[in-house]
Amino acid sequence: MQTRVPSAKVPSLPSPGAAAPSVHALGIAAAGALVLLAAAVLPLDAPPLSLLACPLRAATGIPCPSCGATHAFHFVMHGDPAAALAANPLAALGALLLAAHCVLTALRLCGLRFAPSLPRPSRKISRFLRAGAVLVVLANWLFVALRGAL
Amino acid sequence: MLESAVLARCPSCRNTFHTARTGRQDCPVCGKPLVVPEAPKNLIEQQGGTASAPALTPIEEPAPRPAGTPWERRDELGLWAAWTKTVSQALLEPGKLYSSARIDRGPAQLGFAVATGSVFLALGQILDHLLFARQREQIQLWMQQLSGSPSYPPWLQKIVESSSKSSILDTVLWSLLSPFMMLVFLYASAGLTHLCALLFGQNRRGFPATFAATAYAFAPLVFLVVPAGCGGLIGLVWCAVLTGIGLKATHGISSGGATVAAIAPYVLFCCAICALPFAVAAMVARRGAG
Q1: C-alpha distance from B91 to closest chain A C-alpha (Å)
Q2: Do the Cβ atoms of B183 and B114 come closer than 8 Å?
Q3: Does the distance separating the beta carbons of A6 and B15 come in below 8 Å?
Q4: Element holding B26 (H helix, E strand)
Q5: B17, B132, B155, B243: which has the highest count of C-beta atoms within 10 A?
């Protein structure tokens, strides 16, 4: 008697040599390109960007962790990394990562057979990474709040 | 140690993986600990040997894949019937909708969210413009009265002032941009929700599961068609609730974990999440302030 093992697709991260980008990679790149284009083209001191206001800040006076993100994206797209970091360091990093993702996805669409592969961390390491990420978000929030208070 | 790799199924994330050893180990997908038991003796004996027994599946066979939501089965149901059933299930029976959702149907989910959100956003814009065309003078009069009040926020003043001057052409032009806005809002919402799920340790099945939860949570955006901003408010609150229900079903997490992962983005990333209502207001305001 032969026991049949059903075949199953094991989810994995993209690896070097991977083929076309996934629908979510394309979607994130498209959405990211639109955001970066808007940040490059729209002026900060005119609508629609000048109409943006943080409800948390308006209600409590305390900025949210993403306050300053619009300015950070704007400054990244205008080649002013220092001003972008001063506005919101995490958002500036996010804008750079988004731009890198857009470029990589475009290259993959043009035939580049490479996708960055990240090793899967063990449970212990992922818990450590999670705690580190929470601390980074909190530190960024503190920075934004102190900058706003000064 | 097993003779060859066997197929195991993680009880936490329900993903399957191959392993060559038994005993305690971590799931390579979600990282949760699990135990792969030894192959049952009677099964091995039935196969005519002990050490050279062929690979067995120690954990139960994978559950059959869900059939898919009505929208994911639109080829057999028809486009209109599939859309209406999906929206009604999302609004009235979200548990049923999310339990039938397949996380490998990202393109279908993307299409549903962008189409639903952008069509009703555009319709709402046009209706709003047509219905309130005669009220503009009245709004301007109120604005003049309120502008002296210190409790009236300047940004709200700017929005209302500008919206009272927009033309139907502006409304139509900005309505044409609504699919792009919805695409951005969908991925921003899914990305921030997934980030919070990761931070709070609620990510079991990866980004596609979060995306499925977020995409079908766009169904209440049909209320954007209700003019004067009321529909948008109802739609956004309902959207947040559905995201939580969806995360619970698609990631297989607890109600508390799903609630935290769904609500946290609204608290932590207030500016980013609230960009949509402001963007909608800005669409109407463009002409007046430009």
Answers
A1: 25
A2: yes
A3: no
A4: strand B23-26
A5: B243
ipTM of the complex: 0.80
Give the CA distances from residue B65 to residues A10, B14, B109, B158, B229, in Å, rounded to whole numbers and listed in that order. 14, 11, 17, 51, 40
* Residue B226 β-bridge partners: none
Alpha-carbon span B144 to B281, nearest angstrom: 20
- Count A/B contacts: CB-CB distance under 8 Å: 141
A30 closest CB neighbour out of B55, B183, B211: B183
pLDDT(B159) > 70 = no
Of A2, A48, A123, the CB nearest to B31: A123
Interchain pair B271, A54: CB under 8 A: yes
- Per-position DSSP letters for B100-156, written without gaps between them: H--TT-HHHHHHHHHHHHHHHHHHHHHHHHHHTGGGHHHHHHHHHHHTT-TTS-HHH
Q: What is the pLDDT of residues A141-150, one digit of tens each?
A: 999 988 865 5
Task: Give me B27's structure tokens.
Answer: 């799931």
| Residue B215: both structure tokens together | 């995409």
Both tokens of B235, joined, read: 């739609």
Nearest CB partner across the interface for B153, out of A58, A67, A120: A58
B20 touches chain A (CB under 8 A): no
Residue A76 in tokens: 């990244």
User: Does the beta-carbon distance from B26 to A54 stay under 8 Å?
Assistant: no
Please check the confidence at residue B65 and state whether its pLDDT lies above 80. Answer: no
- CB proximity A93 to B under 8 Å: no
DSSP A88-134: -HHHHHHHHHHHHHHHHHHHHHTT------PPPPPHHHHHHHHHHHH
Q: What is the pLDDT of residues B177-219, one digit of tens each?
A: 889 989 999 999 999 899 999 888 888 888 999 999 999 999 9
Half-sphere exposure of A18 (CA within 13 A, CB side): 18
Which two structure tokens, joined as six digits, stand for B40?
């049952």
